Amino acid sequence: MKVKSYQTPYKSLSMETFEMVFRDPPPEHYSVIIRGKESWLFRHDQIAIILNCIGFVKDLIQNRALPNCTTIKKILSSLGSSLPSLIMALGETEGRKCRRLWSSCNICRHISSSILPQHLRKVCGIRGMLRALAPQRLPNIDFIFDSPAYRLFPFFVYMLSENDTTTYSPVLEGIDVADSIRLDMAVKQIRNYERTHLEDAALNLEDIIEYRRRLASDVCGVDKTLSTYAAYLSVGLARIYPLLVDDAISDFYFDREETFAYIDHRDYGRCLTTVFLDRDSMRRLLTFTRIAADRALDRASPSIRATIKTREFHIRVSADIPPLSIEGTSISVRKFFKKPLRLNDLVSNGTITREAANYCVERIKERKNFTIYGESGSGKTTLAVALDLLTPRAWRKVSVETEIVENVQQLSLGSHQVRLLVESSSEEERARRTAVLNSLLQKSPDYLFFGEVLSKEDSVALFQLLSAGLKCIHTIHAYSAESLLLRWAYQHQVPVQLLGELDILIHMQKFVKGRRLFRRVARISEIVSAPQDLPKIVDVFVWDDASGRLVPAIKMIGGGRCCDEKIP
User: What start-end ranges are recorded for coiled-coil regions in this protein (predicted)?
Assistant: First the structure.
C-alpha cells in the first residue's frame, strides 16, 4: 500500500487539515495518513471523494454568479467548521426546494450529483456516507506500510516494524466506499427485517450471525463473499473482526476501553495493533459475553468468563469492570484454533526440538501418562492437543473439558472420541465435575484427555483414575515439577505413593525477547517412584541457555527414536 503522510498542528481533523492535503494532494491511488495529536488513515478512494468535495466548494466560492439561497450559505459556512459538517451540507441538498421558487434549482441538483454517483445517492443517507468515509485510527507511531503479510478478506494485514516493536495492522482494502455504503444499507435492511419478524429473533451470537448471514445474502443481495462481514458489521463487532477470525492470533487484550488492542501472534509473538476498541464495540462484545455466560455483569458481580463459538471462531472471553478493574473495563480473549497445531508445526516454530518430539511420540505409543505444566498462556493446551492427535485411531478416547472446551473434535479424523463438558464455576458444577471424573472407569477409555486440573477435587479424582489403571494426558498450572509434586502432596493431600503413577512431566514456558513473546518446552522429565517419599524426578531434556535449545540431559530412559526420523 502506497501512503503519503501529513503532519497537522490541529487537535482534530479540521477543515484546515484537509485544505492542507488539498493544496498538496497525494499521487493517484495513494492512501493518506494524517498525524497530529491522533493519527488517522484514509484509504485512497476515501481521500479522493473528500478532496473532490473540497474542490467543489472552492469552485463555488470562486463563482460570483451564485444564487443567494440557504443551501449555498450553509455550504460556504461549513467550510470553516469540520469535514462532517461540510459533507452533511453537501449531502442534504438532495431534493431540496428553494423557498422563493418552490422548486428544485439546478445548483442543488448539481451539488448532490457531484458527491456520489446517482445509484448510490438513492440509497445512501448522510450518516451512511460519513460512516463510509470514516478513517481508521492509528497509534502515534511512524509506520511504513509495505506489502501486506497476508489477507483476511475484506482486510489486508500489514505487519509493521519499528525498532523492536511489531504492530499488527488490518486495513479494510477489500472493499471501496461504494461497497461500504451498500453494506451500511444492508445492515439497515437486516435490522428492519428483524423488527417485523420478531419470532425469528435469536440471542446467542452463533445463531444471530448465521441468521443475518442468510439475510444479507438472500434478502439484501449482498455478495456471498461479503455476507459474513456484513453479519458481524450488523452486530457491532466489525472493529475487532480481524482479531476474531485470524487463526494466527492466539490471544488479544484490551486493558481498558478506548484503547488499542495488543495480541499474541503465532509467528510474530507479542504485537501491538491498530485495532481501536471504542465504547460501543466493547459494549456489544460484553453483551454477547453476558448472554453466553447467562449471568449479569455489574458492580455486585464485576467479573465474567464465557465461551463464544461461531463458524468463524471459538473464543473464551474474560472481562472485569469497575470497581474490580480500577482503570476501566478490561478484556482478555483466548482463541482456540480451528486448525490446531500439529507436533510437526511445534517443531517448525521452535517450541520443541525434533529429538524431544520423537521421544514424546514413543511415550504416547506406550500409553504413558503426560503431565504438562507451566504458567498461564505458555502453550500447555496446544502441546496437549498436538500429542493427543498422535494417538492411534483405534483407541477409544474420552475428553473431559471445562467451559473453555480445550480439545478439538476428532471424529472427522477417524478417531473414536467422546467429549464431556463439565464446568467448574460454581459449587454445584464442581460436585458434578467430580462425579463425572469418578464415573470414567465405567466408560472404558484407552486414553483420557483431562483438559486442566483446577482444584483439589480434580487432583484427588485424577490420581484415583491413575491408580485404577487409566492413562491420560492433562495440564496444570505450576512453576516447576518439584513445586507441583509438593502442592499435590501437601496442599491437595494426595498420598505420595500415588504420585509415582505419573510418567512424563513436560514444562512449558513463555518468555519475552525484545517485544516478542515466545513459547517453548523447557524441560521433559520422567518420574521414578519411591515407596515412602516423594518420587524422584529424572530429567530427560532440559533447556540449555548457552546453546539456546532443548538438549538431552541423560541417555534417554527406555530408548527413543533417532532425531532424523519423521514425526507422524
Answer: none
